[in-house]
């Protein structure tokens, strides 16, 4: 009996243990399923954008952290740093036709097939120009072919040239009332193109309407198709006669409305912009403009060191040989810099921003597909500002790969070692001449071997730059996408700062295109148009003590930046607009939405400012349907100088001045501040 009871107890214990095992197994399965679900959500849920950003990799040991916004400083300081430009608040975009503008006719003179070469800003300018040319010639435009994004460049086969960068359907629908556009040539003309029987024109950015009307149109009418090759960043002169002003507005409609980025590119740009604004704080977009071509064109090689100087000089020699640039190979870069012909270094831009009042935790987005000199040149900027980020820090690798599409695997073969030197054939005369024993011939030269990494490795081996590999061509196509993302972010930024505004041909560059778009879309947003010559002089004054500037120097910097917010438009209109209309699309593409009664009430005041800077020209009044929210006119009782409040207490911290110097000179500093403020108010009243 006792044994049977004991056996029954053992059976119950075994059953109980087996149940525990099943419960544990079920719990383990559920835990695994839960973890798997969380991983999927963390990877594909859009709401976890910030966590994805925090898991990205940076080359620095620290990570910029976007703290909660702290806007406890005074309103005047915030307005000076981030507020709109009052003189431009009533300027609004308006690119619609304003006169008689008939729709395109169904029967056109023929087809225009276009090939475009160049970088992002050159492609954008060229597309706008060719649309205007098609309208001028009453021709049907075939979707332009961008040479940098063809299938031969190793990119994904999912996209075809133009569609790699822009949305074709949006482009065609937005311009339906302006130009007839088709995706491909008719079949009969495709055969002629393959046989190279289509007449071709290689045009420049200064081609006139007369050239197209009297030389291209007769050929177009005769052959029903012409091919236009654009490699100069445009195909029509920037400034058109007054009777063609509607064509200027057509340029604006193309650039700012029809050219929408491909959905995948636009989606990633929007995500990055969201991550930048997630902290609730404004941010600065900074484009260094430091490209190898621009540095070579303007002779700025001596601002760099070692291999970078060699690369710039090699490019300049190449430009001199082809007549792109005139002058000598060796140029005094220091003199060029003082004349404002070289880019501002990131360190110099950082010092100017700190002097103006931007705090150490300001968010700065660095744009640009190429920053010549690499991250080494950005280290001083990182030291002055904690939150310096770029596209790579705000996106994940899989997001970039999704944007690129499916691409074939390309493996760069490792550079082959130099072949061993061939043993020289012994000269017959040496074999037979002279008594024996004869001296031995010199040993063969040892083969030269280099252990070089990077795309610049050829500099140590050859005087000629090698042809680009398929991998490099693919990277160049990727750079267009990177610049497209940067373009979107720079246009939407609260503040934009260009380090340089010229490209490798002396024409307006990416930054100029951004400034033109911001002037059209949101003219009152802060865009600093530096006078680099004046900035170079200011920096030379403190060259020996870069981080210990006095209050007088800082006041000079602030006064210069404030004045150039408006006065810089005058220089921009004379320097950039004759070379690129999109860099300064006013007054043709803008209108004034202002309360005329308030303007007239201030007009009698002798101290009132003019409504708009003279550089903007005659601004038309906006149509009545846009006057829902009237913008008050400029206030004459407030000067822009008044926004420069005395925040000198933070200057010592920004420029590492000792507390002893600040305490000892406190009384003198207050007197100096008062004198400077009085002088600025007097100057503001005189203007």
Automatic annotation (TrEMBL):
One of its GO terms (biological process) is fucose metabolic process. This is O-fucosyltransferase family protein. It is a single-pass type II membrane protein. The chain crosses the membrane at residues 22-41. The keyword Magnesium does not apply. Pathway: Glycan metabolism. It holds the Pfam family O-FucT. InterPro entries: FucosylTrfase_pln (IPR024709), GDP-Fuc_O-FucTrfase (IPR019378). It comes from Forsythia ovata.
